[in-house]
Amino acid sequence: MPVNRHQGTRSARSMSAGELTRGEPDPQAATIKSPNSRKGYYTISPQSKEGYFMENCIGIDIAKEKLDVHLLDAQKYFTFENNKCGIAKCLKLCIESEPDLIVFEATGGYERLLAAELMAKNLPVARVNPSRIRNYAKSIGRLAKTDKIDAQIIAQYGFLNKPFKLEQHDIKSIELKDLVARRSQLVDMKTAESNRMEHAANEVVLKSIKKSIKCIEGQIDLINKTIKNHIDSIPELREKARRLDTVPGIGIITAHMLVSELPELGHRNRREIAMLNGVAPINKDSGKKRGKRSTGGGRKQVRDKLYMPILVAVRHNPKMRAFYKRLVEEKGKPKKVAIIATMRKLICIMNAMIKNNEDWRDDMVGF
Fold first, then answer.
1. Same domain for 133 and 77?
2. How far apart are the C-alpha atoms of 99 and 9, rounded to whole Å?
3. Residue 96 and residue 105: Cα distance in Å, rounded?
């Protein structure tokens, strides 16, 4: 019978059945269910090549100066410089390997050029939060940390957890994300200078602060125009921003932020989009204990930038105001909890709007 790697069975290029580990799983190993095993699983040992249930997954540990690459299927390790020449060699290796998934950590920007090159060749790419990789390594007893080990762990994590693949719209929004981030930096600088002006007693200092604020305002205007031109040049982003701008309480600046910081909007279900933003309640139950639900994690920068628009929506959007009041007055929720719940509601509505190509309607709120 032919074997299909994507259905969780062993790869045609993996080791023979006699070399796979069967029996009780090692306490420091991860286990994978397999229909081809009498006991229902194969063991992935973190300490030896034997026992691996292979899939063609590639893990890349990205640093400022180099790329450490681990091929899970072939159990081979490579290292390249993190520059155009090294990325070209890495790209060639990945194309020749025909991977099912290429996984790397979010490294604050060092991964962007590599991701763009990989996706330009239509290779499957996933970007993962580094804390998840580290927690996974600890869970299987891999306490040692080197670039080579990290690349291997990333590949294993990708195979076991199947993180979401990046899509072309993610790459298109990279430049926009940089522009929106720069705008936030300029706004913070303007706020800081304005605060200093309150305590400036010296005339020279006061004049210097005013000139600085005027200069920053000019830079903000320039960035705003650049953001608008960038969005207008990409039909998908332009339509998405226009649609979000129809939501009462969400202005064009917030729409631009959502387009850049939350490219998954319209491409995930409501639970996933809420988790991405850290506004989904997380259960903390154990046995008979019922812990208090709480929110957290996700993209704090999106949550922070949505806080003021949500306050505006609660005041000026009749449907969202009614939803908020029902939580506070009828269900007795604390006001901050109600604000987060309203934020989650609005994010899910905007997600549905983008997914269904619809503008805002008051009946979307529902109760």
1. yes
2. 16
3. 22
Examine the domain organization and report whether 125 and 218 are in the same domain.
no
Within-domain flag for 242: no
Eight-state DSSP code of residue 19: G
| Range of the structural domain that residue 65 is part of | 57-166
DSSP structure class, residue 6: G
Instruction: Confirm if 57 and 161 have CB atoms less than 8 A apart.
Output: no
What's the start-to-end Cα distance of the chain, in Å? 52
CB 56 within 8 A of CB 49: no
Query: Based on the structure, what is the number of domains in the chain?
Result: 4
pLDDT digit string (tens) for 3-19? 444 443 333 333 333 33
Kind plus residue range of the DSSP H or E element containing 356: helix 335-356
Question: Which H or E run contains 285?
Answer: strand 285-286
Is 301 inside any structural domain? yes
* Distance, CA of 47 to CA of 45 (rounded, Å): 5
Strands 101-105 and 125-128: parallel
Chain centre to alpha carbon of residue 305: 16
In a domain, 281, yes or no: yes
Q: List the beta strands (DSSP E) in 6-150.
A: 30-33, 41-44, 57-62, 66-71, 76-81, 101-105, 125-128
- Reference 144, options 132, 131, 153; nearest CA is 153
pTM of the model: 0.65
**Predicted pLDDT of residue 263:** 81
Backbone angles phi, psi at 104, to 5 degrees: -145, 165
- Is the predicted pLDDT of residue 59 greater than 50, yes or no? yes
Q: Which of 289, 290, 288, 269 is nearest to 280 (CA)?
A: 269
For the CA atoms of the chain, what is the radius of gyration? 25
3-class SS at 294? strand
The answer to whether residues 290 and 356 belong to one domain is yes
3-state secondary structure of 60: strand
Residue where a domain stops, chosen among 204, 233, 262: 233
Q: Are residues 20 and 79 in the same domain?
A: no
Q: Residues 31, 88: one domain?
A: no
351 and 289, same domain (yes or no):
yes
Q: How far is CA 171 from CA 111, 158, 174, in A?
A: 11, 20, 5
C-alpha 100/C-alpha 78 separation (Å) is: 18
Cα(142)–Cα(45) distance, integer angstroms: 10
How many residues are listed for the chain in this entry? 367
